[in-house]
Amino acid sequence: MPLKKTIVIFFFFFTAFQQNVLAQNKGSLKIIFTNTVNGFPLVLSDSVFYTNPFSETYSIHKFKYYISNIYLNNAEKENESYHLIDAAKPESLSFEFRVKAGNYNSFNFLLGIDSLRNCSGAQSGALDPMNDMFWTWNSGYVTLKLEGTSPISKQFNNRIEYHLGGYAGINKVMQPINLSTPFKIMEGKTTIIFIQADINMLWQNPNDIKIASVNVCTTPGTLAKKIADNCSHLFSIKNILLP
After folding, report:
1. What share of the chain is helix, strand, coil (3-state, %, to 5)?
2. I need a labelling partner for 53 at 20 to 30 A (CA). Which of 79, 113, 123, 214 fits?
3. β partners of residue 72
4. pLDDT tens-digit profile of 16-39?
5. What number of other Cβ atoms are within 10 A of residue 189's Cβ?
6. Is the backbone peptide bond immediately before 206 cis, with ω within 30 degrees of 0?
């Protein structure tokens, strides 16, 4: 057999062997998001009211946000890591990806879309403009969108709207989320992490946001930045289910 052909065959089998070894050394990580208000499951309805830390009542009929750039221990990353979590679509609340088997102690992600993708124009999949999370007038993605009503809102039909966007400069709203907890990925198995988003965290820490004075925020700027800073405390890990 000619030497060149022998080398090609050897390289083919060696590559296949490497891929098989890598596949055997991985498990799966499934993430499940639960949206809550003060620990209670979120109900999307204009007739179900919640109370914020300032004793202001409000309802929610739309709640959605972007999760991106997932990584573990500053090492393992999810490829093409862009997810739109939409409380109105149960199928959007969970996703799964392959991870190298081993012990981990942190789960990290970006609330929002990184500046590179914000500058890449309209895209597809989770980043499709048809998902109603893209500002064509501002060429950027909305990080988080909450809509509902409050009896103290002076807007038409007592509406409240918070569309947090802006990806550049001092008023960019993306928030790095770092959740520390030990967990294990086992070869050929699936580990499940349950993450809770508590909407009542949106109103405080570090900034007091009162519905009486802030009914609507739908443009980039200082106000959007203040609300987004509160979202850095929005998420917590509620449970980990090992295989």
Report:
1. 25, 45, 30
2. 113
3. 76, 107
4. 344 444 446 999 999 999 999 998
5. 13
6. yes
